[in-house]
Amino acid sequence: MNDRHLSDLLAFLRYPSVSTDPARKEDVARCAAWLAGKLESIGLQAATYPTPGHPIVVARNAHRADRRTVLIYGHYDVQPVDEPELLEGETPDPNRHWMTSPFEPALRDGVIYGRGAADNKGQLFSHVCGVSEMLEGSRELPVNLVFLVEGEEEIGSVNFGAFLHAHREELRCDIIAVSDTGMIAPGVPTFTYGLRGIAAAELRVTGAASDLHSGIYGGAVGNPATCVARLVASLHHADGRIAVAGFYDDVTPLAEWERAAWSRLPLTDADLQRVTGAPDLVGEAGYSALERVWARPTAEVNGIGGGFQGVGSKTVIPREAFAKLTFRLVADQHPAGVFAKVKAHFETHCPRGVRLEVKQGHGGEPYLTSPNLPAGLAAQNALRRAFPGREVALIREGGSIPIVATFRQVLGVETLLLGLALPDCRAHAPNENFPVENFEAGIRLNRALLEELAQK
Amino acid sequence: MNDRHLSDLLAFLRYPSVSTDPARKEDVARCAAWLAGKLESIGLQAATYPTPGHPIVVARNAHRADRRTVLIYGHYDVQPVDEPELLEGETPDPNRHWMTSPFEPALRDGVIYGRGAADNKGQLFSHVCGVSEMLEGSRELPVNLVFLVEGEEEIGSVNFGAFLHAHREELRCDIIAVSDTGMIAPGVPTFTYGLRGIAAAELRVTGAASDLHSGIYGGAVGNPATCVARLVASLHHADGRIAVAGFYDDVTPLAEWERAAWSRLPLTDADLQRVTGAPDLVGEAGYSALERVWARPTAEVNGIGGGFQGVGSKTVIPREAFAKLTFRLVADQHPAGVFAKVKAHFETHCPRGVRLEVKQGHGGEPYLTSPNLPAGLAAQNALRRAFPGREVALIREGGSIPIVATFRQVLGVETLLLGLALPDCRAHAPNENFPVENFEAGIRLNRALLEELAQK
Question: What is the pLDDT of residues B283-311, one digit of tens each?
């Protein structure tokens, strides 16, 4: 391992670039400036663009018309530390407390610990180091390259779409590569060709003018908490299918080759049960848990509330209740269309005696590409070169990265999702980590990827 | 109006006998001592009995074997003040703020304002004044009398049952009278012959070991919030009937005479809708709202919760969710039996993939007597004498006063519920009040009641 790469990554990790925290605004800006300086120092032309929020860093080599153009996307902002105060006499719990300071990255047993180690500084920086090595060796890259690195990914990329639109000519490219996903197991090269989208909604049901005594008025009026429960219960059939009319209309079915490939992966439903600690795996009939998470849409309650929340009992009929919902979508569902169907469903199913409001929340398009397009085959070759002797896992993921669909819409190109984080990387949690060997594999991957893509 | 009666009541109201507040323990004790002294001063033998909580006051005349024995129950403790701080520049809102100090009773337009004015000091004290007048005039009551006044009614009468058991020989009586309920409208003498019971339960559903990312795991595992919603939704059929097997087995049907009598009352479903501000009145099919509240059991959610409660969205599958429920019961349902059926129902209906806990909460028996038993007819005569020219409203109430069932179990006698408070008495709320004319009517009622009961 090149010592400078590691010491540079540790320097990158020391910036507390927490995008959601207004008190960290200067730290976020300093992190962007450091990254631009680093990209400049390895031989690229780098610029930092202000946005209404945090800056966007763009770097490129000198482009030539006879080469293909590859855009590597990443983000330099990180999640908050999110650690409860350690009470007097309490032993730190690694599930809740950092064992070492989140912004003083530590190396233990070949693993880098620190906020952003995996998500996304470590993964992004392996590409930076790969490019650095190629430029040092040959003074030339095999492709036209653009690094596009934002500082607001953890807060919904709020200014990124507008930036893409405004700069779409300069950002024109043939393919996009992103390492911000996961590997299914240590050492298993993993190519993600599908992501779920999302449509958020909030139900609010109101009844009487104030909380009512459940003895004096119970039986006379509708109970908003009961009504919210009935609306939530109306979302699913007994077999786990979603009962919203037309919900599955635009769903691309799971392909037979996917089902066959996934059944051979070194990742099973038993692994999912162990990781979650759930009493059992349940969901839509006819699919394995992995298939349900990766290839089927869902309707989940993220929060439900109403009435008395304290210890014991208080005999009220609450005046209002709510449910916060997200629907995970698969190709070719669209958030706006799904929200409209969900809203109509709730309006049809709302019991009498209460008022219902259905508010639309954020949305993100699902993404599905073929891993066997020329660029996808090139990426598979690169993964085999970075992880010699291992079969490439072709997977989808259940989470949402809405900008991937935005890339397709605005720039008209596909995105290669080449994850380097392990399942226990603890992204968004205390003790986030990234093994040095994954960092090294990422550097190998970058070099192989640019070479493979140059030929497609 | 006898000026001394009113000034005595105001003195009684000045004691801040808030039973739930440990800081008021001495005030509660002083209030009990004052009441015992007052009862002694009018010619009764009074005693104050300590309990593990607040004292119980008992007073009696000299009993004679040839007279019937009447026990008048009441409570001298009161609800907390429960007033939010008035912010700088905020105008006091009579729904939230006291217009005059709760323990400095004020007389405005013939109405007494103060904590406890209606619940229960004012109502109780009208009986004390009635007895006082009779003793002053004739030096003799027409009945053997027992006043039994507790100081823990507002905190669930926690020590009252044990006291009743321990003193059941001294408290032996033929009938009990209580003025701690309401009149359906000003000037309408009201006899309550039924109360609902209560059975409380809490559902807790747990799933995965921690909150899960709804993208990464959504579809694989059960969602506790969804499961709680489905369990709550399973409680009712579409027509509003409760779907728990055997729930209605022990329900005494609403009698035809009750339906007919209630339809003639100066209290309608429209009044209920106006008072509650509900968009519509809904509930079990086949009954008016008044019938549902007074004569039919219910299942209400008092609180529901789980997952993200803040503004916006957080894409988690919550690790647990709960619902707090109370079932209002009618004769001859029993809390323990209903809880057992409800628990079995939830265990049968709980979706796979989660763990369910059903906890039993507090319970209270319903009460139903006939208004046309000899003592009931006597009470109706007394009400007609206290409110000349008005028809007596024979009603049930939807709330629960569990000690009434305890009286029947321990002492083996019925209870006459002769309410003197108006619908807008604001019991348990700021600006609690009791009209002087109701106080006077209560004094007339006491005299008439003891005379009528003497002859039955």
Answer: 999 999 999 999 999 999 999 999 999 88
Residue B40 parent element (H or E): helix B25-41
**Cα atoms in the 13 Å half-sphere on the side-chain side of B181:** 29
**Token pair for residue A222?**
């509708």
Nearest to B300 among A202, A233, A317 (CB): A317
Does an H or E element contain B285, and which? none
Q: What's the Cα-to-Cα distance from B192 to each of A198, A276, B181, B184, rounded to whole Å?
A: 56, 55, 8, 10
DSSP symbol at A354: S
CA B35 to chain centre: 22
Cα–Cα distance, B110 to B104 (Å, whole number): 16
B-chain residues near A231 (CB < 8 A): 229
Answer whether B306 sits within 8 Å of A307, measured CB to CB.
no
**Helix or strand run (H / E) with residue B164:** helix B160-166
Are residues B229 and A226, on separate chains, in Cβ contact within 8 Å?
Answer: no
Angle at A257 between CA A255 and CA A258, to 5 degrees: 65
For B212, nearest residue in chain A (alpha carbons)? A276
pLDDT at B406 over 70: yes
Rounded Cα distance between A303 and A284, Å, is 21
Structure tokens of B129?
């004044």
Give the model's confidence band at B1: pLDDT under 50 very low, under 70 low, under 90 confident, else very high. low
CA A131 and chain centroid, separation: 25
Q: How far is A397 from chain B (nearest CA, A)?
A: 7
Kindly report the CA angle at A187 between A122 and A123, in degrees rounded to 5? Answer: 15
> How many CA atoms are closer than 13 Å to the CA of A128, on its beta-carbon side?
33
Helices first, then strands: H and E counts in chain A: 12, 18
pLDDT digits (tens, 9 = 90+) for B234-265: 999 999 999 999 999 999 999 999 999 999 99
Q: How many angstroms away from the CA of B205 is the closest CA of chain A?
A: 11
> What angle, rounded to 10 degrees, do the helices at B3-14 and B436-454 form?
110
Cα separation, B394 vs B450, whole angstroms = 20
Structure tokens at B372: 């046309």
Q: Under a CB-based contact definition with an 8 Å cutoff, are residues A318 and A310 in contact?
A: no
Name the one residue in this structure whose structure tokens are 């490129």: A60
A183, A419 contact by CB (below 8 A) = yes
Q: What is the DSSP letter of B86?
A: P
Q: What is d(CA A167, CA A150) in angstroms, rounded to the nearest whole number?
A: 14
Q: Region B377-384: what's the mean pLDDT?
A: 98
In this structure, what DSSP letter does residue A185 have?
A: S
For residue A46, give the 3-state DSSP assignment.
strand
* Cβ neighbours of A213 in B, within 8 Å: 399
Please state, in angstroms and rounded to a whole number, the distance separating the CA atoms of residues A257 and A278. 29
Alpha-carbon gap, residue A298 to A327, rounded angstroms:
5
Residue of B nearest to A208 (CA): B278
Q: Tell me how many residue pairs between chain A and chain B have CB atoms under 8 A apart.
A: 297
Integer angstrom CA distances of residue B77 from B5, B265, B418: 20, 32, 19
CB-CB neighbors (< 8 A) of A296 in chain B: 219
Q: How far apart are CA B288 and CA B285, in angstroms?
A: 8
* Radius of gyration over every alpha carbon of chain B, rounded to an integer in angstroms: 24
Say which of A214, A218, A282 has its CB closest to residue B221.
A282
Q: Radius of gyration over alpha carbons of chain A, in Å?
A: 24
| Single pTM value for the model | 0.90
Which chain B residues are within 8 Å of A243, Cβ to Cβ?
A: none
Distance to chain B for A299, nearest Cα, Å: 8
Distance CA A69, CA A172 (A): 8
Cβ burial B334-349 (10 Å sphere, 16+ → b, else e): bbebbbebbbebbeeb
